[in-house]
Specification:
Two copies of one chain form a homodimer. Chain A has 16 helices and ten strands. By secondary structure, chain A is of the alpha+beta class.
Chain lengths: 508, 508
């Protein structure tokens, strides 16, 4: 799919597939070196055939990007005639994957090699597709990427689990500095700063664990054919895109903070951070660059998952958005309706800390932020269009705003999954600890955005300080459970460094 | 210096140097495996002698950590008798440095091998030191680390320069996606989100460039013997510690964001991010762990650079702090005095954006934050002590607060250096661009802390939104200068990947 000049913008790939009516063959071409296929997994050394995404052209008319099966190597493993193959080069990590480049010089494949679920060409060169709108057709084809995205998000989450487990185990064994005047040295994890670095990451890892489980279940329903509602599929695509971005950035953060929390020991290869940092580094930009994916999420939200942003007249879209936002409020869950009714009682003048621990209140703060950022982004877009500015310029000026809306949406989804997971927990003792962990996750996220909440009058300056106190508190309360909480993540010992009674045992 | 069980807490190293009165020798010992010297540069393969930090013991009395010259290898390159040497192991990066471990089994060296500038032992075993207080003596010895810290901070800054230069050059060449309906594809750096990711990092890199230049100059004055004032030395140590933390974390951020901004191309080894990410990774924790260094900065601030925190009675310290804070206001520069006088006129009710561009106002916001966080941390410490809590528990509960104070201090120092650099610029056109870059740096930092500023009534919610607008604006205005601004950083072409008219030229 990817080409050197077109990574994120797959719709504009340069590779062409021209239908030759006489021989009933496709002629695959790489028009310029920038149009070469790049980063293709297994292409450099081993691949025998490729699914090549190319502009489908019949009689000079371009029907957009479609996939073609193209043999690239013979039984002897040598590249076939008219196909040039290169290695993409040495990489920061994942060098066990032989990413390669493919150049096609009028390579011919039979008509049947078009993968024709969404677009068919007859022997006579007549094109037809079950999906009329070319953009909708293209995005439907791209929909298969959802499986890869759920997988990469899951891989990111796994890496995060390993990183926080390693760092918290280490912080539970490694001592440094004693109280002034002597006394036993202090475990790293007993330092407030260390708790503040690691425990919110642990909480977020748990939150994502529940979201990932939900995504996999939905993936099974949709791709297993049990849920054929196209809306369900679009919702899944959006959720997978958003979660992939969140989980892979979370992985990078856990690896970085975890490595630093382990100090020099984290820098040693046997500590595991070296290989994981290298391999997981690309997660944030492959299978869809995270920023581009968040933009897709925002587009889905702005259009109510119903249409493709690219094809929408921005003026029409802006109008649509307004109604959509109202509609979304109606669709709110019971908890959110409750929030709507009791909001004025709770805020902004209530300065008690207590309700910061109410899950409904936390969810309401998340939901309110998502709705507000999305609605205000929509209003800005509409205003720009109304004032006659170039639609692309308008969108670009609001790009950051739109990305914040997407992040806020993903945050809400993740908190909801965690809250649901807490409710489902049968064991009362575990549920209580999980619930505090969920508090920590919710409140440390609200803490990050407390500038925004104050700007929008949703929390007062006094309550904002209370939020900080209410991040410190669960850190303290969860400290004794930290060991059990990482064990419950069930990271196999085989992927963890050895820990023992002395820090030296960390070093195999 | 470092041992496996004592990295940050050098004062507690386990290695001992017992004075043998009969032979007038030092007997160097590694009491347990955890006390082995670790991470020692050049020790694993090549080093012939080491400066070994050990507890100096005479007749059973421990005089604290001192440095001893200990030969470790003979002319044949083999470890000497009673010395065991191991490689510290394979690392995430910097594998060209043969970090090693040293174990001493009653290794004997002559009395003269004590490096005795700060502590002397006569033939008869009488200890004397020009510095009475053992903690003060220890920290004076550690003062030599300042040179290493200025160097590592500088290395971090250099890495940051390479990373932002690479990413901005790439963003100025690489195009992706066009406006809906066709038209030329858009340069990555023309996207608002891309500007927002990279330009504040460029601005902060410039800010640090000016601070680093100032530090090197002061290092030269102090270590060149031109400024022998002990306060000047302590100030330099604090500045070096704070800058080292800020610059190395900045390097990590620039490498991560820069790599992501270059997408898959940034993942290729020839792009340069691979090696730099690996090597610079350890910067944040070696030559002093960043968190520990920031704690040292806070301690210096809290004690007015005059005494060692460890030796201070915390109750006395808290009282001392209060007077110190008042004193600091008196010491303020003219700009800050001005701010003091005009503050009420400017805020919090002025909702005009204009003054956000006033350097004095920006500096005042930074200084006010620093003073306020420091003063409130001091008050919390004092209150905890007054209420009779264990001093270590009190400090630990405030640890995060204290670290924020240190960061705020470093931020102020860096902005002041940038502001000074702008003033010193002779060329009017350049000065104007630099000044906007300084605005971007100041306002994007204020934006990060806008939650805090609102909590403390220093900016209103309306003004907080204005801050965001005033980060967007210089991003837009500086966009056309981005290319020149990175060229002016003068990163040698030899350390940059090749860029050409097509993105493929990025890949050598």
């Amino acid at each position: 799919m990817s080409e050197s000049a077109h990574g994120s913008d797959v719709q504009s790939v340069g590779t062409t597939a021209d239908y030759d009516l006489e021989t009933q063959e496709w002629v695959i071409n790489t028009p310029t070196p920038a149009d070469r296929k790049d980063w293709i997994g297994n292409a450099a050394a081993h691949g025998r055939a490729a699914a090549v995404f190319a502009q489908l052209i019949v009689g000079g008319e371009n029907h957009g990007v479609h996939a073609f099966v193209v043999p690239i190597r013979g039984d002897d493993g040598e590249p076939l005639d008219r196909i040039r193959i290169e290695d993409s080069g040495h990489k920061l990590g994942l060098n066990g994957v032989d990413n390669g480049r493919l150049y096609f010089d009028s390579v011919r494949v039979p008509r049947e090699n078009l993968l024709d679920r969404y677009g068919l060409v007859t022997e006579e060169g007549e094109y037809s597709s079950p999906i009329e709108n070319p953009t909708a057709r293209f995005f439907t084809m791209l929909g298969t990427l959802v499986q890869g995205r759920v997988s990469v998000g899951g891989a990111g989450l796994s890496v995060a689990k390993v990183a926080v487990t390693t760092a918290i185990r280490c912080g539970n064994l490694r001592r440094q500095f004693g109280p002034p005047g002597g006394g036993e040295e202090v475990l790293l994890l007993d330092y407030r700063a260390h708790q503040r670095r690691l425990l919110p990451l642990l909480a977020r890892t748990y939150a994502m664990h529940f979201k990932q489980a939900e995504l996999v279940e939905r993936l099974d329903l949709v791709f297993g054919g049990e849920d054929e509602d196209p809306d369900a599929r679009r919702l899944l695509e959006t959720a997978a895109a958003g979660f992939k971005a969140a989980a892979t950035w979370h992985a990078v953060e856990c690896l970085q903070t975890g490595r630093e929390a382990c100090g020099g020991m984290g820098y040693l290869s046997p500590g595991g951070f070296a290989a994981r940092k290298a391999d997981a580094e690309i997660f944030t930009t492959f299978e869809g660059d995270n920023t581009v994916l968040l933009q897709l999420v925002a587009k889905s939200l702005l259009t109510g998952y119903r249409e493709e942003f690219g094809e929408l007249n921005p003026i029409g879209m802006a109008g649509f958005i307004a109604s959509r936002v109202i509609e979304r409020f109606v669709e709110r869950t019971a908890a959110r309706e409750l929030w709507g009714r009791i909001w004025d009682e709770l805020t902004p003048n209530s300065e008690e800390d207590g309700d910061l621990k109410h899950r409904e209140y936390q969810l309401a703060l998340f939901a309110w932020r998502e709705d507000h950022v999305l609605a205000s982004a929509a209003r800005r877009l509409k205003r720009g269009i109304d004032e006659g500015y170039d639609p692309f310029e308008v969108f670009n000026a609001c790009q950051d705003h739109v990305l914040v809306a997407a992040r806020a949406h993903v945050d809400t989804q993740i908190l909801e999954a965690f809250a649901h997971g807490v409710e489902e927990c049968d064991d009362e003792g575990s549920r209580e600890v999980l619930s505090r962990l969920c508090d920590l996750h919710a409140l440390s996220t609200i803490e990050k955005h407390r500038g925004w909440y104050q700007e929008h009058g949703r929390i007062s300056s006094t309550r904002s300080k209370a939020v900080i106190r209410n991040v410190n508190r669960p850190c303290e309360e969860l400290r004794p459970h930290a060991g059990n909480l990482v064990e419950a993540l069930r990271v196999p010992d085989s992927v963890l460094p050895e820990f023992g009674p002395t820090p030296t045992a960390f070093l195999r």
